[in-house]
Amino acid sequence: MTTAKKGNITLSKGNMKLDKSILIFSIPAVKTCPNCRDCAASCYARKAEKVYPQVLPCRERNYSATQDLEQFEEDMIALIKDTQRKAKKHKPSAVRIHESGDFYSKEYAEAWARIARACPELTFYGYTKAPWMLPEDIPENMNIVESVMPGGEVNFGSHEKVIKMSKEYGAAICPYGKAKKTFKCGTDCKACMRRSRVVFIEH
Question: What is the pTM of this model?
Answer without folding.
Answer: 0.92
